[in-house]
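User: I'm writing a short methods note and want a consistent example. For DUF2732 family protein, I'll paste the sequence; you return only the structure tokens, no commentary, since I'll be parsing the reply automatically.
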Amino acid sequence: MKATGIEQLIKKVREDERKHYADLFSSRLAKLSAHVLKNKMDHAASAALLQRESESVERQAQEWHYV
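Assistant:
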């Protein structure tokens, strides 16, 4: 079965959206890494920072799911 024009458009938009969110996530990880290095954070503080970020990302995903 051949995809219609609208199906192809939806597929392209979804691909673009995934790329956009991957770029945002990559940028956020780079900022967190720079913060850890700049502040010479120890392992426990770094892990806590990553845990808070993980919880934030999960909350965002839940909010998007309910929209």
